[in-house]
Amino acid sequence: MPAIKVQSSDAIILGVMIDDSGSIRFEGNSQNVCDGHNLLIDAMNGSKQGDSILMHTRYLNGKILFPYCLLADA
After folding, report:
1. Residue partners of 66: CB distance under 8 A and separation at least 6
2. Which residues, listed in sequence order, are joined to residue 64 by a DSSP beta bridge?
3. What global pTM score does this model have?
4. Which of 47, 51, 57 is nearest to 71 (CA)?
5. Are the CB atoms for 7 and 13 separated by under 8 Å?
6. Residue whose C-alpha is closest to residue 60's, from 28, 25, 35
7. What tens digit of pLDDT does each residue of 58-73 get?
8. Are 54 and 6 in contact, with CB atoms under 8 Å apart?
9. Which of 2, 30, 31, 56 has its CA 20 to 30 Å from the CA of residue 17?
10. CA separation (Å) from 49 to 28, 37, 66?
11. What is the DSSP string of the chain?
C-alpha cells in the first residue's frame, strides 16, 4: 500500500502471525485464536492512533491472511 494513504506523520506497523498448527486445531482452539485476532483489531481501532496503524496478518504455515493495509481495512 502506498505510504501516502496514511494520514499521519507517524505510522505504527503491526505484523501478526497466527499459529495455525495442528496442535491448535486438534485441541479445539482455532476459534479462540481467531477471536483473539479480532479482539486485537477491535482494540487497535478504538485507540487514538487507530488511523495511523498499518496491519498485516499471516499464518505460521505461510498463508497470508491480508497484506499490509490500513487497520480500518483489516
Report:
1. 55, 56, 57, 74
2. 58
3. 0.80
4. 51
5. no
6. 25
7. 999 989 999 999 898 8
8. yes
9. 2
10. 34, 18, 20
11. --GGG--SSS-EEEEEEE--SHHHHHTT-HHHHHHHHHHHHHHHHTSTTGGGEEEEEEETTS-EEEEEEEGGG-
